[in-house]
Amino acid sequence: MPLKRKIIAIIVTYNRSKLLIRCLNKIKSQTLPPQEILVINNGSTDNTSEVLKLMDIKVINQENVGSAGGWESGIEY
Question: Distances in Å between the alpha carbon of 56 and those of 3, 31, 66, 69?
Answer without folding.
Answer: 27, 18, 25, 24
